[in-house]
Amino acid sequence: MGIFKQSVLKEYEIQMPYLMWMSASSCIGIKTYTRLQSFFASPKEFYEGSGAKWEKCKIFTKKQIELLSEAKRTKNPQTEYEAMIKKGINIVSIEEEIYPEKLREIKDAPISLFYKGRLPEKNVPQIAVIGARACTNYGLLVAKRLGESLAFADMGVISGMARGIDAEAQTSAVVAGGYSLAVLGTGPDIIYPRESKRLYEMLERGGGIISEYAPGMAAKPANFALRNRIISGLSDVICVVEAKEKSGTMITIDCALEQGREVYVVPGRITDAVSIGCLEMIKQGAGVVTGISEFVDEIRSNYRVDAFTYLESKSNEAFSDKISSNGKYENAFSTMGENFGKIVLNLPVDSFNVDEIIVKTGLDYGEVLLALLSLEKEKMVNNLGAGRFSINKPCLDLIDEFRKNFLAS
Amino acid sequence: MVYKVFSGTVGGIFGDLITVEVDSSTGLPCLDMIGLLGSEVREAKERVRVSLKNNGINLPPMRITVNLSPADEHKEGAAFDLPIATALLGVFGYIPFFDNLNTLIIGELSLDGEVKGVKGILPIVSMAAKRGFKQVIIPKDNAAEAGLVNGIDILPVNSIGELLGLLSCTQQNGDFLYERVSIEPNSEEESVPDFLDVYGQENAKRAAAIATAGFHHLLMIGPPGTGKSLIAKRIPGIMPKLTYEESLEISTIYSVAGKLGKNLPFVTKRPFWSPHSSSTSQAIIGGGQKAAPGLVSLSHHGILFLDEIPEFKREILDMLRQPLEDGQVTVSRMKKNYTYPAGFMLVGAMNPCPCGYYPDRSRCNCTTPQIMRYTGRLSGPILDRIDICVEVSRISPEELENRSLKSENSKDIREKVVKAVETQRKRYITEAFNYNSQIPAWKIKEYVPLGDKETAFMNSLYDSKKFSLRSFYKAIRVARTIADYDGEDNVTIKHLAEATCFRLPDYFGG
Question: Could you give the CA distance from residue B321 to residue B343 in angstroms, rounded to a whole number?
């Protein structure tokens, strides 16, 4: 365990603004970050150190030190951090448990990520669907079908929110009720391109938006190429729908191959310019998508989660959830009466019907419905329609715990 | 010399006036019938001649011409026997005192002179009453049915003998006059099964009650043998009793379809039809050679229950669109083009997947494409018109035994439904519609005003739940009915939240 990790976990609230400042300075990658740990005890100490101290460790070039001093002069970590939280943007550092596992493993992992919405769930296969901005109708159709099918199979769709294939795949995944994550090359609060505004808003609620760049960072061409390594790093499988011979998509593929991710390609017509990249990859031996449902089934069987890791991750998740929600769930339980306890006690793990609970508890229809609706309000159960509900997965452990306490008292 | 008698026939659900003219002249003896007649009408001449002969009246050997006018309208059915016989009696001077211009006559004859019942009496008698006829002579079997129409004297006859007696009366025909029995709708409550018999399906029962109160179309989803049909059969028992107008409307359709008779002279119970999934489109929508009304029309003001709804032919389900939308259906065949009322409440029941147990994945092994294909048999436009969807879940017998569940009986539910219907009737008194389910989208703001909190709640649902605009409005309409059913003036979050529980499940696409 690095020394920064200790300090971050110990004094989370104090250290995070400085960690954020470090990553916002855009001079510190994962290598520098690791090396710094033999000179400084915490991000705060690093910030407080002056130009001379930074020079002493012989890590930075002169230009970088200038930049860092400039950043220290102009940006106050505390106020920047607070402003960010106010905007609804979260930060997760590489030291934290909830930092995406797959991304942590890559060579040049970002030291922190800024995000809105939800991070991808662990142990759920994440598929990157990427492709050309100027795509054909065929490409759009395939992207749409892919997005839908992956959503139906409960897999995440990761992409870059660019127009064309990216946006289409992500939109259809969210519309179909699935999870989708956009990896941006700008700050997480910048919507680029503008026409993806609607998708951006959908992702805020039904998925996530992630970026290694601090809020406010405008679009720079070089950054988009860099973020492609995050797209592939977060994914288990990369599926390319349409790509020109030289394109950002091809950069992502290079990253993916370097990171050891599987690459699949949707074949296109040999007469289309946007097919050349894809066909070239097929020639080189990439996997070929010959049918959407076949592709989805194949991924599903390859990335089946074994029960043990799943349970392990569940307990971690519940733990981190509890920290972040500051006891919100406990409040939900304690504010409601005795019948409520009776109902929660009888909630099955699987989805259930209102009538099942009525029969199990012997309570009135009205009481049961009211309890379920207030649980829904607290986002602990989902209303599936036609009188069916299910427990919101992250709350399973909390409900278990509640049951134990309730039975004990 | 020409003698005229009036009769009637049925076109759609309306009666049409037919004039029967008979002329006798010298010439070679024969009996000719003209006027675009169907073969059953042409055969009337033999029935009339023989039955008159068997009652002691021999037609003189003259050239007799019978014309049924209007001459350009195709005539069908055996109901012209009696008017033709009467006209023949008239032309030969047997009935000099008969007031033929103020009487309408219908009936079929058998060879021995007996008068038999016919179809479609009700619309014809209504037409006669509207046109100002003083009296109708009809078969005795149809007397009670005709009695539903007020403002006209009904003279039922059983045989040619009786007819002669009646027609020879100089003045008063009081002995023959039919005395109407008063209609008592639904006095036979014991025959309708009670909701008390349905155990442990409170959610589904409430959904049924709310659907009935607002005349919302209902879809029940559940594994086999959980009580979907049980619930559907009990819905007529909680609907408000039929009013006279409703009863008349339904009886008219039944009359046209030939469903009325001695045993069922008029309809007093809410119709409940449950066609099998192999039924043809003619049976359900209407049609056939005579463009007859189908079950959608026979279920007018009542329930059309489609059990195993995905098993019905796709084309039939799609044809339900017009009646579901407009409350009427237009049936066209050859030269006929009739519009029948079809304001029914659709109650559908289905399994959620081919094996029946989805979403209980511990039992159901169906693959996602299988389930999609199964639920996909219900097309979007049909699903759009279903406001309330509810799951009827499996409950084990042990669980039922363990609990003494409180349950409402049909009588109590009906009282609440009646109140809710009354509330709606008052609210929509200036409108063309009567129920919450029929509020058009552009009038929702006017009739279901929502407070700030409620609007925010609905908007958040619209954003998060993948609600389409249509399901959004559906939820508001259902919430209005829930509030009416619970006897509350304003729609609050409680009602809206409950309404969202009745939306189509996500595997139907919300």
Answer: 12
Peptide bond into B70 cis (omega under 30): yes
Question: What share of chain A in percent tops pLDDT 70?
Answer: 89
Phi, psi angle pair for A176, to nearest 5°:
-80, 5
CA angle B348-B350-B353, nearest 5°?
155
Whether chain B has a CB inside 8 Å of the CB on A360: the answer is: yes
Interface contact flag, B405 A362, Cβ < 8 Å? yes
CA A352 to chain centre: 29
Q: Hey, is the C-beta of B231 within 8 angstroms of any chain A C-beta?
A: no
Return the H-helix or E-strand segment holding B16: strand B14-25
Average pLDDT score over chain A: 82
The answer to whether B420 and B481 are in contact (CB under 8 A) is: yes
End-to-end alpha carbon distance in chain B: 74
B393:A364 CB<8 A: no
Of A355, A370, A376, the CB nearest to B393: A355
Residue position matching structure tokens 């890590």: A59
**Distance in angstroms (rounded) separating the CA atoms of residues A98 and A314:** 12
The DSSP-derived string for A288-342 is E---HHHHHHHHHHHTPPPHHHHHHHHHHHHHHHHHHHTTHHHHHHHTS-HHHHH
Nearest residue to A388 (alpha-carbon basis) of B371, B431, B406, B502: B502
Closest alpha carbon to B126 in B253, B311, B295: B253
Q: Kindly state whether B275 is in contact with chain A, defined as any CB-CB distance less than 8 angstroms.
A: no
Q: For residue B197, what are the contacts with CB-CB under 8 A and spacing of at least 6?
A: B230, B234
Do A386 and B400 count as a contact with CB atoms less than 8 A apart? no
CA distance B294 to chain A (A): 30
Rounded distance, CA A17 to CA A61, Å? Answer: 24
DSSP 8-class letter at B157: E
Main-chain dihedrals φ then ψ at residue B375, nearest 5 degrees = -70, -25
Residues 288-347 of A with CB under 8 A from B: 293
**What is the DSSP-derived secondary structure letter of residue A26?**
T
CA distance A293 to chain B (A): 9
Contact across the interface for B464 and A205, Cβ inside 8 Å: yes
Q: How far is B359 from chain A (nearest CA, A)?
A: 8
Question: How far B207 CA lies from chain A's nearest CA (Å)?
Answer: 9
pTM (2 d.p.): 0.62
Which tens digit of pLDDT belongs to each residue from B106-118?
Answer: 999 999 999 999 9
pLDDT digits (tens, 9 = 90+) for B46-83: 999 999 999 999 999 999 999 999 998 889 888 999 99
Residue with the two structure tokens 């017998």: B397
Among the listed residues A83, A80, A61, A66, the one whose alpha carbon sits nearest the alpha carbon of residue A23: A80
Which among A205, A376, A386 has CB closest to B504?
Answer: A386
CB B28 within 8 A of CB B63: yes
pLDDT at B466: 60
Interface test with A, best of B391, B394, B400 (most A CBs within 10 A): B391
Decide if pLDDT at A355 tops 90.
no
B426 in contact with chain A, both atoms CB, cutoff 8 A:
no
> Across the interface, which of A175, A350, A387 has its CB nearest the CB of B501?
A387
